[in-house]
Amino acid sequence: MTDSMCSRRLSTIFSSALFLASSPLKKSVYLLSALLIIACQPSPPTSEPVTAENSETVNTPLLIRADSITMTPDHILSVKPTRYQPSLGLEGEIEPIKKINLIAGQALIVEKVLVKKNQWVEKGAPLFIVRRQTSQIQQPADAVAATNSTETVEVNKKADIKPEQSAVNNQNSANDTVIDSENQTKQAVKNDAESDAKMTTANSKKPTTDNATSSGSNDDNNTQENTQSEKSYNLITVRASFSGRIEKLYIKNEQKVEPHQPLLKLSDETELHFIATLPIDAESQISVGQTVNFTAEGLIDEFTGQVSKLTTTQQPKQLLVAVNVVDNEVSRNQIRPDMKVTGRVDYGQIQVGTTVPKRALHNVDLTVLHKPPYKPLRPLIANVWIIKQDQRLTRQPVEVIEYDPLTKQYLIAGITNDSLICLANLPVESEGKKAVVS
Q: How much of the chain, in percent, has pLDDT values that exceed 90?
């Protein structure tokens, strides 16, 4: 309180004191002293500083005319440059890099299943044995097809399939452990071979009495050989194309399988990745080898990944980004298939933006920014009213980069330093009108 204000208040109090002294009550001198002390006390401070965000003048009515809008200085915010690193948001679901689904290419009979669900198998280990149906011997159709996340691999395309020929011909590499059913398959084939050898030896030792007998013997041998050949042609042993775990097992012994029916799903959980989808215009901003920091749903720690592959789709035209999980102690103990993850990858050079309060942003839903990491997964576009150097109002689109929960401010990009920001929520018709500050 200034001295003049205190003097005026004191004079008022003195007048009151004189009136009280002339009254019949004759108030004591202590009351007068108390009034003097109260009069000279300074005014109490406000509970919070007055800013453009909470000032009452911001909410005062604007004077809108045909060619101008009159506002107070509290409606105006100057541009304060803030540096930031551009980044892209990535979102996906953890899955094994190596995975394969085996399906029947034609009607089959499951001769024997050699593995169990959740069992770990090594590359080349036999998984199951199937037999073609007799009526389909002459058909060159595929017996088993293998599908994974990126392509369909046709197998057994040739007609000259041998008893122990693998039905899977995938290009994936592999690691780790073994199953114990290899001997069973080898023994089954060995028995067939021994049977054929015995048959041939027995036939060769028979005496030839005449042409008729010799001809009949040869016919019998040919029939037996054809039967064995037919049997060998029908028998198919399917092997693992890489080391992994039997995630799904759909078949059992002596089961009849129809075409396109699933047989088995194999995946290697030791190598994981996730695939994110980005707009096609992000292709120039990202490259193989870039580091990706990501978090997993329900976990506190931050994990590291690396961009391993970029794929362009046509319908719709998008960019698929494959991110391999970096194998370390943190990820190995926590990251599992089917987890939903969210990450970011930095690109380009440091850029300059500006921070604004919420009331400066229009035509946008900002709720997606109000939780960690406080950055949008996709470009978030808002409108901001700015005042150019000619004092004319313009509604300009900007990109919302980040939200600061401490200051409750938003970092935006797209406004030059030679402009002023108008915090008022103006009607669309304000475009081009002159801003008058009073």
A: 56
* 353 burial type by CB count under 10 A (0-12 exposed, 13-18 middle, 19+ buried): buried
Q: Is 258 left (phi over 0), alpha (psi -120 to 50) or beta?
A: beta
Q: How many whole angstroms separate alpha carbon 224 and alpha carbon 366?
A: 79
Residue 153's DSSP bridge partners are: 146
C-alpha to C-alpha distance for 385 and 422, rounded to whole angstroms: 5
The Cα-based distances of 360 to 58, 343, 364, 409, 413 in angstroms read 11, 28, 11, 10, 13
> CA-to-CA distance for 231 and 257, rounded, in angstroms?
18
What pairing do the DSSP bridges indicate for beta strands 434-437 and 68-71?
parallel
Strand-by-strand arrangement of the 68-71 sheet = 63-64, 68-71, 434-437
Q: How far is CA 283 from CA 1, 85, 86, 272, in A?
A: 64, 18, 14, 23
The reported pLDDT for the residue numbered 99 is 94
The residue among 356, 369, 370 whose CA lies nearest residue 398 is 356
Q: What is the pLDDT of residues 155-208, one digit of tens each?
A: 333 323 333 333 333 333 333 323 333 343 444 434 444 444 443 334 444 444
Q: 279-306 burial, b for 16+ CB within 10 Å, e for fewer?
A: eeebeebbeeebebebbbeeeeeebbbb
Entry pTM: 0.62
CA 36/CA 42 separation, integer angstroms: 13
> Token pair of 3, please?
């001295």
Q: Give Cα separations from 135 to 92, 193, 229, 257, 297 (angstroms).
A: 46, 24, 15, 15, 52
d(CA 257, CA 138): 19
pLDDT value for 372: 85
Count, residues in the chain: 438
Q: Tokens 């120039």 sit at which residue?
A: 284
Question: Nearest-CA neighbor of 150 among 105, 99, 92?
Answer: 99
